[in-house]
Design a protein that fits this description.
The complex is a heterodimer of chains A (682) and B (130).
Chain A (H helix, E strand, L loop, with lengths): L5 H12 L2 H39 L4 E3 L4 E3 L14 H16 L3 E3 L15 H15 L6 H9 L20 E3 L6 H47 L5 E5 L4 E4 L1 H7 L18 H16 L1 E9 L5 E13 L2 E10 L1 H23 L3 E6 L2 E5 L1 H7 L26 H13 L4 E8 L5 E13 L2 E10 L1 H44 L4 H26 L5 E3 H15 L1 H6 E7 L3 E3 H22 L6 E9 L4 E8 L16 H13 L3 E6 L3 E8 L8
Parallel strand pairs in A: 16-18
Antiparallel strand pairs in A: 1-2, 3-4, 5-6, 5-9, 7-8, 8-9, 10-11, 10-14, 12-13, 13-14, 15-17, 18-19, 19-21, 20-21
Helix pairs in contact in A: 1-6, 2-4, 2-6, 12-13, 13-14, 13-16, 14-16, 16-17
Chain B lengths: L6 E5 L3 H13 L3 E6 L2 H11 L3 E4 L9 H11 L3 E6 L4 H8 L5 E4 L4 H11 L9
Helix pairs in contact in B: 2-3
Classes of the chains: A alpha+beta (682), B alpha/beta (130).
């Protein structure tokens, strides 16, 4: 029976294998049952003997002849007054008892002599004590073997006792069903116990084998768990029947679901919005085609979302299709992408909102441009620009006469060669209107490709403003020129008339006086001329001016002038015209004086002319000669000559300076004044 | 043998200036053979009178200027051109120099200076009277 059902053993083995406690209990229980059965067999065999004695001893007056194997029931004589021994009844009882033995039940009836059954439970204990006393004695005697054997053939009997009054009137009924185990039964029990032990051993063995195989499986499972838990992202095995079969710890972490919850979830439960249908659709596709990928936002139980890239493959396990999915957390990538997008947006905005037109050119073709370009060129859409080139938006010739095509090519090539180009270019709008732009070309490398970045600024307005400014300036220049011209012409006329008057003057004295005045006019005119020739409109070079002046005065004195050397030592100083003219007039007077009076009678001589910057930014004009010197009684304050008075007046009142004169073998004038009397006006 | 007085053509639009020069030149021994105030007059007078000297202002009435007039004159006859002008600018002076004048006087100048230059060029050494 055991060998015929190994599967039962295996099943039991498997069942027990999982539970060591149950194993122990089963083994203990089967052992206990075996022991109990053995004990029962033993006990019952003893009990048979006991029962026998009980039965015999219940019959107080009975006698057992063990040697002959007979039981003699002597009498049911409770009392001395009892009826005499009824042998017939005793025999009847005896035979009945033997039949009872044979029938597996032994009935001994104690009856009244009348035959009526009596029950008297209250006396039972007493009787039992009497029985025990009898029993103690009876034990000394052996139980007949045959009887014993006979009894052992019986299988099972119930032993029951009832006490009845054993007085003369009441008989004791001992009704015992004696349970006796036969040898076969004992063997059967032993067999059963052995079989049970064998089954137990087998089950234990099977369970141990099962435990070993389970441990193997467990090891493999731990191994695969370790592997899938070590994956960098969530992992799940999803069966075609619509259940999650395996997953890793990260899967639980990201979904925020426990192991108990996951098998009851559908993949779409972990997503929301459009992602739900997309996920479902992708899973269907994977089962259909074998593979699929998707980007979706996984929603955890607490509502937290994580963007993922999922890659799934279909695999076959035990003849069933499953889907293996691995997720890659792309939150960081998304953030980078968003940052990139924001940055791109920022630069795109800068590009689009730039005040200048910006192009990208591949060679001489536009590949991209900003919105401002459309305004500048009067285009409606980028398509009107991209794919075309600068020549399409230029007249055939540039203002300098060059052909636009060649000129543009040169500029682009120069920019590509690494020389940034900035130039003005005449363009045509889409409607043909001309405009002038300032163009900047720079080489730029985008994605490994060498491009030209062109910045175009419409400078028509600036050009117009420049032109207006230039024209205004030109007008002013002409006006200024005209003014100078007129001034000079007027001075020329005055000078000419003075000259004329001098020529026709009655006396030399008058002629000389007129000549002096003419010189003064020329001194002033010379300052104006220097000013006009100078770069500045308000300052002139004192060296140029004074040298020129001295030269002209010397030339104006004809033969006298030729005998005299003028030696100059003049610092390079630039003065405002307001200072230069009075200073020039002083020099004119002093030089004239020298030329006229220092060298009488055809004497040769030398005049020193100097201008130096002294302490405190004061200028010092010196005019000296090595002539005859001043008359001994000369006094500046008292001098009546116009020239000296003019010098003092100008030096002290106009230039706020000082005048000093030395006369020691010649005359030497020192005029010291402050250069910074006036503020610069132009 | 006394040479005849060198003849001078005065091209100047300022009447007072013309008068002053006329008088001073006559006194200086020159004969003023004509005056003009425009380019056309100047060229016509020069061709007509063939003067030894032309005192030429640059800014004239009417179209054209003294430099153009001088260029036409020196292209037709031999005469000494003396520019006498208010223009001191180097570009004007440069343009004027192309006709190879004997002098370029910037106003205001002294007529004595002018006479001195003419004397040098006519080989006369005497100083102007007065």
């Amino acid at each position: 029976m055991i060998t015929k059902s190994p599967s039962l053993v295996a099943v039991l083995g498997r069942r027990f294998a999982g539970n060591p406690l149950l194993q122990t209990w089963a083994l203990s229980l089967s052992s206990i049952v075996c022991l109990a059965l053995l004990a029962l067999a033993h006990h019952h065999s003893r009990l048979v003997a006991q029962s026998y004695y009980y039965a015999a001893e219940n019959l107080r007056q009975s006698r057992v002849d063990l040697a002959k194997g007979y039981i003699h029931l002597c009498a049911f004589n409770d009392t001395a007054a009892a009826s005499p021994y009824d042998e017939a009844m005793g025999l009847a009882l005896m035979s009945q008892a033997i039949r009872s033995f044979e029938r597996a039940a032994w009935w001994l009836l104690a009856t009244k002599p009348s035959g009526a059954d009596l029950r008297a439970m209250d006396r039972f204990a007493e009787d039992v004590d009497s029985l025990r006393a009898l029993l103690a004695r009876a034990r000394e005697r052996a139980v007949p073997r045959r009887l014993m054997r006979t009894r052992l053939r019986l299988s099972f009997h119930l032993v029951d006792r009832q006490a009845s009054s054993l007085d003369g009137r009441i008989r004791l009924l001992v009704q015992q069903r004696v349970s006796v185990l036969g040898r076969r039964f004992v063997l059967l029990i032993l067999g059963l116990a052995l079989a049970l032990a064998a089954i137990g051993a087998l089950v234990f063995g099977a369970s141990m084998a099962s435990v070993r195989s389970r441990q193997q499986i467990l090891r493999e499972r731990n191994f695969s768990d370790a592997i899938i838990d070590s994956l960098p992202g969530p992992f799940a095995l999803y069966g075609e029947e619509g259940r999650f079969l395996r997953w890793n710890r990260l899967f639980e972490t990201y979904t925020g679901r426990g192991a108990g919850e996951i098998p009851s979830l559908a993949p779409a439960d972990m997503f929301r919005g459009d992602d739900r249908t997309r996920i479902t659709e992708t899973i269907r596709k994977v089962f259909e085609t074998g593979r699929g990928e998707i980007e979706a936002e996984l929603v955890a139980a607490d509502g937290r979302t994580t963007p993922f890239y999922f890659a799934a493959r279909r695999i076959e396990i035990d003849g069933r299709f499953c889907l293996v999915a691995t997720g890659f957390d792309i939150a960081e990538r998304k953030r980078t992408e968003e940052a990139l997008q924001r940055s791109e947006e920022k630069f795109r905005t800068l590009f689009e909102n730039a005040g200048d037109g910006i192009f990208l050119m591949r060679g001489d073709r536009f590949v991209d441009c900003n919105g401002r370009v459309l305004d500048i060129y009067g285009c409606a859409s980028r398509e009107q620009i991209v794919g075309r080139g600068p020549v399409d938006f230029s007249p055939s010739l540039q203002p300098d006469g060059r052909e636009s095509t060649g000129a543009a090519r040169d500029k682009i090539n120069a920019a590509l060669a690494g020389r940034p180009q900035v130039f003005e270019w005449t363009h045509t709008k889409l409607d043909g209107t001309l405009f002038v732009a300032e163009v900047t070309l720079n080489k730029t490398v985008i994605g490994g490709e060498m491009l030209v970045q062109a910045v175009v600024r419409d400078i028509t307005a600036r050009k117009n403003a420049d032109e207006a400014l230039r024209s205004a300036l030109r007008e002013k220049e002409i006006l200024l020129q005209e003014l100078y011209h007129r001034t000079k012409n007027n001075m020329q006329v005055i000078s000419a008339f003075l000259e004329l008057q001098a020529a026709f003057a009655g006396s030399d004295e008058v002629a000389r006086t007129i000549q002096d005045s003419s010189n003064r006019i020329h001194t002033m005119a010379l300052a104006h001329q220097k000013l006009y020739e100078a770069k500045s409109l308000s300052r002139i070079s004192m060296r140029d001016y004074l040298l020129d002046l001295a030269e002209k005065l010397k030339a104006g004195h004809g033969a006298t002038g030729q005998r005299i050397d003028i030696v100059s030592d003049i610092e390079e100083i630039e003065c405002l015209i307001d200072v230069a003219i009075p200073c020039g007039l002083i020099a004119c007077e002093l030089l004239t004086n020298c030329l006229k009076h220092a060298f009488p009678g055809g004497r040769k001589g030398r005049i020193d002319l100097g201008l130096h910057r002294g302490a405190g930014n004061r200028l010092e004009l010196t005019v000296g000669d090595n002539g005859v010197g001043l008359p001994p009684d000369f006094d500046i304050a008292e001098s009546a000559t116009l020239g000296v008075q003019l010098v003092c007046q100008i030096a002290e009142h106009q230039l706020h300076g000082t005048t000093e004169v030395e006369s020691d073998g010649g005359v030497r004038w020192y005029i010291r004044f402050n250069e910074e009397l006036y503020e610069e006006r132009v | 043998m006394t040479k005849p007085s060198p003849s001078v053509l005065i091209v100047e639009d300022e009447a007072a200036m013309v008068l002053a020069m006329k008088m001073r030149l006559k006194a200086g021994g020159y004969s003023v053979c004509g005056t003009a105030s425009s380019k056309e007059e100047a060229v016509a007078a020069a061709i007509d009178k063939r003067p030894d000297f032309v005192i030429m202002d640059i800014r004239l009435t009417g179209g054209g200027d003294g430099i153009e007039a001088a260029r036409e004159i020196v292209g037709r006859l031999e005469t000494g051109i003396i520019f006498a002008t208010g223009y001191a600018e180097s570009d004007v002076r440069g343009r004027a120099m192309e006709v190879k004048p004997i002098a370029y006087l910037v106003k205001p100048f002294k007529i004595a200076e002018l006479i001195g230059i003419m004397n040098e060029h006519s080989g006369r050494t005497r100083s102007p009277a007065g």
